[in-house]
Amino acid sequence: MSEKLSTQPYKGTRDFYPQEMRLRNWFFGVVRRVLEASAFEEYNGPMLESLALYAAKSGDEIANEQTYHFTDRAGRELAIRPEMTPTVARMVAGKIGELSFPLRWFSIPNMYRYEKPQRGRLREFWQVNVDIFGCDTYEADLECISSAIRVLRAFGADESMFTVHISNRRFFNDAVAAIAGTDAEGCRRISKVIDRRGKVPREVYTGELSALGLDAGQIARLDALYTMDAAGAAALCPQSEGAGELLRLFDMLQKTGLDRYCRFDFGIIRGLDYYTGTVFEVYDNAPENNRAMFGGGRYDNLVGLFVNNAKVSGVGYGMGDVTLENFLRTHGLIPGSLGACRRVLITRFDDVPYQTYLALLDRLLGAGLSASVYLGSKKMGKQLDYALKNGYTHTVTIGSDEAARGVLRLKNLATREETELTPDEALRLLTE
Amino acid sequence: MSEKLSTQPYKGTRDFYPQEMRLRNWFFGVVRRVLEASAFEEYNGPMLESLALYAAKSGDEIANEQTYHFTDRAGRELAIRPEMTPTVARMVAGKIGELSFPLRWFSIPNMYRYEKPQRGRLREFWQVNVDIFGCDTYEADLECISSAIRVLRAFGADESMFTVHISNRRFFNDAVAAIAGTDAEGCRRISKVIDRRGKVPREVYTGELSALGLDAGQIARLDALYTMDAAGAAALCPQSEGAGELLRLFDMLQKTGLDRYCRFDFGIIRGLDYYTGTVFEVYDNAPENNRAMFGGGRYDNLVGLFVNNAKVSGVGYGMGDVTLENFLRTHGLIPGSLGACRRVLITRFDDVPYQTYLALLDRLLGAGLSASVYLGSKKMGKQLDYALKNGYTHTVTIGSDEAARGVLRLKNLATREETELTPDEALRLLTE
What we know:
Two copies of one chain form a homodimer.
Chain A: H1 18-37, E1 41-42, E2 48-50, H2 52-58, H3 60-66, E3 69-71, E4 77-80, H4 85-94, E5 103-107, E6 110-112, E7 124-133, H5 138-154, E8 162-168, H6 169-180, H7 184-195, H8 202-211, H9 216-225, H10 230-236, H11 241-255, E9 262-264, E10 278-284, E11 291-299, E12 314-320, H12 321-330, E13 343-346, H13 354-366, E14 370-373, H14 380-389, E15 394-397, H15 400-405, E16 408-412, E17 418-421, H16 423-431
Parallel strand pairs in A: 1-5, 8-9, 13-14, 13-15
Antiparallel strand pairs in A: 2-4, 3-4, 5-7, 6-7, 7-12, 8-10, 10-11, 11-12, 15-16, 16-17
């Protein structure tokens, strides 16, 4: 016996057999329908991009650490896309003169990150990317958050299942400055500590803030922000532009009834160097999953990396397939019978001319039914077994006796009822 | 001005802006519908696979030359999939005990090949892969060929636009042996020359065959095969199993009326080391494209690379997106208005509360319409211009006057008709 190849997929990637693929086609189909209904348009770009794209956006270190990259034979440094934003920024920049802004774009690409696989994190994943380009004001932030809520509601999720945590990076900077009363560089250092607040022990957190010159009162004022609502927080620095954005956003969430899905959360930061305005994360409320499922926010002028004097702001979010599927499973939002429709297996006897079956197949397909002829020559029991295991709902049997009389036997596999019918009668019954 | 990144996609890859994406979603949607109707089930696998998979199937040289490959940080030799067959064979092998054969599977993956980009060939492409596993007889070959014809007919193509060229590799071997009258090794060498018949000058072809011991009569008998039909060719070596398969296949094509799309073509070989039975290529009949668009055939027991004592034959084809799109364009088979549906832009005035527009949006979306509120505050002319450029069919306008009277103005952008209506009346009109 020769040595055999492994049947395992590469670490951190998945095989999607038909059963899993039906699930994916269903949930991506729901997402696509909701986004298209609200006038988002789908785009896609290549799986391979210049590595420089990611270095320019995220800094060299992240680009190299998390990204699969290599050099092609012409010496080009390439990366397998670890995210979609640089690609879409490149595409917007490439046709900036022809496009009519604001753009409402989405995509559902697969991407790769070099990570240690764990719950909710894989090396290959798909991500719904939703972006609005070319609207600088809070209405686009609101539309992004609304579209995320629309998508989750379309699956049957309600406010008991998820919460959108919202903050604003401009407000964050102004609040830190107001409390710390120090210069820009001091605030930047303090922000870095605050960013790790939930990830380090309390005494490490307070110790580091003290070392940067904050006293107990200032630390307490920072702490207080985490329990405030948007109005309370905004009152701390009413002159802040970010506070104004927060208030307008929350005011409109309330007026449209979306506030029941949303709360202000000073702890939402999402990476210090990238987002510039509204930021949000959608949390799964289930105790076993209680964490951010996905998020997004406003980032300014990525397009400027490609085009001089361009200024196109963006706001968007990315929703990963792994966390979405976890969420749907946890809350029982996956229907029992995905893509269930009538599907007919035409069973086969060797003593009936094969063209008899193929002619019937043509009629069934022509009538818009899903059907196939059993391929091979096995005993009837095996053919029925095959039909049951492969999602067929009916079988049609024509033995030599039926063939001679121009009839067929139609069997409903759920009720096990079998009836002798003419082909016309069977077609009527199956298409009614 | 700082140095800017290029807006060009990587060589041989494409950006799909919304307009191109609509086209792709349309044509892949047609393919998916046809395949699902005939009970094929969709699967997918990872973009990265072990390089060994391709080396085992195709030989080291091809795997290295045409494949993007690299080593990950754990020392694994990986490849970006250049084709889908090794992945699907691995998946079948991985669940061989649970799956109910014959499998009817399809997939529409993207893949990469390191090629010099040219008409019909790119480095990144998508390929519809259709396979039947676990049926050893001609019925599965017929079903593959039928499904390819069904797909093309669903686009409105007829027999004037394409032809399926069919041969059989077993018959090919037997015919060469019968004419050459030499041993297996001699036949193998002769086959390699025949494989290049159309690609080298005639005198090179005949010279090489002479050098391998064939006389003018034998070369003439080979030539004659290229103008024969299946019955004529099969008569040359009636004992050949391959000839029997060919005859059964063509007999059934004729009985089902599919013969008008098909012809026997001794020149269809498709790589010497891989296919083992029926082989076929679908040709575009347009003079400017006249060449094979895609093809496939029977290959035996790829699953055996993964599992000892497994024997699962396969037959399938792969249809690339680039050639399919060329074909549809050449024959005028792309409808003028792809995905055209009613799409409403709610225009916006600053002196009307924003929630008025958002509440109307909610009603339109709730009624199943596609709609959005204009994001930003531009003059009405700009907003109308935006609607026209972004595929909206209607605008709804509510100024402060209309808001006060509880009405709106609905404009049909095609007819330029504008009517004042209540929201209820507008909804009725838009959803009728």
